[in-house]
Design brief:
mainly alpha, rod-shaped
């Protein structure tokens, strides 16, 4: 089962008709203007099939939950996850390595400046 934040929704709140284009824009992180422009262009190019596809998507997609993201930074994060999950995983691993390195530096500083703690650690070895 997909996480609610990695699912494509209709965004009726920001939509013009059924919210399909604004849902696609939210899902991909592309400006809704460009998604709508492509949708209108595809109607002129293909005609009926594009309209039918839009209506089917409008009826099949669930409505976007009102409080899917806490703030804009969380929305941007999830758009990045949906666009490139491997890059996001690499970034998270790099952040954890950085936190681990900084924590080791704090631990080293604390232990080296506390002779009683250093003696206790040596006694345990």
């Amino acid at each position: 089962m997909n996480s609610p934040r990695t699912t494509l929704y209709r965004d009726k709140h920001n939509g013009k008709l059924m919210g399909v284009c604004s849902g696609i824009a939210d899902y991909t992180g592309i400006n809704v203007f460009w998604v709508r422009l492509v949708a209108v262009a595809s109607i002129f190019v293909t005609g009926g099939p594009s309209i039918i596809a839009y209506l089917i998507a409008g009826f099949l997609l669930n409505k976007k939950p009102p409080y899917l993201y806490r703030d804009e930074s969380e929305q941007k994060y999830w758009q990045g996850v949906r666009q490139n999950p491997k890059r996001t995983a690499r970034e998270i691993r790099a952040n954890f390595r950085d936190i681990d390195r900084r924590l080791a530096a704090v631990e080293s500083h604390y232990v080296s400046s506390n002779p009683r703690l250093t003696a206790e650690i040596e006694r345990l070895r």
